[in-house]
Amino acid sequence: MAEVLTRLSWALRAYLLLAAAWVRVSMAYRASFWMMTVAQFVVTGLDFVAIVIMFANVDALGGFSLAEVAFLYGGAGLCLGIADLLLGNIERLGTRIRMGTFDAMMVRPVSLFAQVASDQFALRRLGRITQAAVVLLWSIVALDLDWTPSKVLMIGYLVACGTAIFTAFFTLGGAMQFLTIDAAEVANAFTYGGNTFAQYPMTIYPREIVKALTFLVPIGFVNWYPSLYVLGRPDPFGLPEWLQFASPVAAVVLGLVAAWAWRAGVRRYRSTGS
Amino acid sequence: MLYVAVAVRAFRRYATYTAATLAGIFTNSVFGVIISYTYIAVWTHNPSAGGYDVSDAVTYAWLGQAMIMTVAVWGGGATDDLAARIRTGDVALDLYRPVGLLGWWLATDLGRAAYHLLTRGLAPTLVGAVLFDLRYPDGPVTWLLFAVSTVLAVVVSFGIRMLVTASAFWLLDDTGVKQLQIVVAMFFSGLVVPLVLFPGWTRDLAMALPWAAFLQVPADIWLGRRAGDEAWWGLIFQAAWAAALLGVCQVVLQRARRKVVVQGG
């Protein structure tokens, strides 16, 4: 046990040092950094403007008001944004494999996962995170909910579990690139696609899709079930109430699957060429 | 004939990556499903929003997915290759060729678009047709008008992307300008929300900008929302932007020719 903890803390230390190095790199072109950060803020901002435009034509979407949809949108965006910041560049793994630079990583005495996750760590992704946080804060102000300590805690818990779930999806996408580099785009359907699914109330989807997003691909646990608790709504599909507290279970199970897939992928890796 | 040969080779080049194409089709289909349900939710609350009905809207969602790669709403395509050649200085070779730079790259991009239309365009549309009740053009004339409109959409998009790329002659790196163009294109092409839903004057503005030629005009022709004279006006709108943009491209490239200093030599 102690050995595992030491290894973990080393990996974490390596990750932080590597990430810090990449931050220094990006700060060498300060103007470029700020432009890209602001650009990300605007791009994802337009995403929300699109939802506002929809609400210019209707006053509810799937029975949810603009402020409630903003809460879902902000929650999902924040989780995806943080996960993307932490290890979104794992999708560069395919390029690394193709170029042969992944082999160089393997011989370094540093956790492989920490190296891949911190590869070209992009602090500019704070742009997306800030945008989602602004929308989330606005929705909280606009919603005028009856706040209880448990609801406040639930928001922190939502962000933690949601980030963990997206992190697992990013890792799975990375692990898949050991099998096929070309099909890397499939991962986007789960990460960015999952985020888009989670931005809207599940009531707009048919029952089968909601079940699939609960038990098969646990996107519903990112923010839908915790949000139902915060918004004080009964489950519109009549699914059991304990699901609203089951996000950690989903995050842990998916995390274990992702860890297993990653290890299997690394073990299977036979380098490119000959 | 030369341009046809160039286009055919561009088509073949993209056709090499089957797994990437299949992965892309999967992702397009997932997004098609999400967007369809959001539109269904909107049109359930307001059955005539933007003058569309619900099957118009769902069809629009799938046409949008089909157009993303075909029209290269997110950038990319032949102009990205040219941008790399400008950065490395290889463009000097292109300028030596006894072929116009613009025609050469337009042919390449049309070849690419043809491949993307037949794969990333057609396949998600079939998926959408299986899962949802879609609307189809109501006769051979409409199909033909839609086909012409799609080609014009690619040309307009090419014109804009080419101008972005040409900025690399002066800036050496077009990443910033490219990013900016993608933001504007994603929003004003109506990829996220149909332009018909835009409120008040923003709708008129969006409808007049060149990005409306990417998706909104071809979709309206497909749906029969632009029929008869309206359809022709749509094509004229696209053709006018295509001509104007290609004209500007030609002038800019002429100037760039004088500007080019091959790096390191």
From TrEMBL, chain B:
Alphabetic keyword roster: Membrane, Transmembrane, Transmembrane helix
A family per Pfam: ABC2_membrane_6
UniProt organism field: Nocardioides iriomotensis
Protein name: ABC transporter permease
Upper classification of the organism: Bacteria, Bacillati, Actinomycetota, Actinomycetes, Propionibacteriales
Cleavable signal peptide: none
TM helices/strands, residue ranges: 19-40, 60-79, 113-134, 141-160, 180-198, 231-253
InterPro entries per the UniProt record, alphabetical: ABC-2_transporter-like
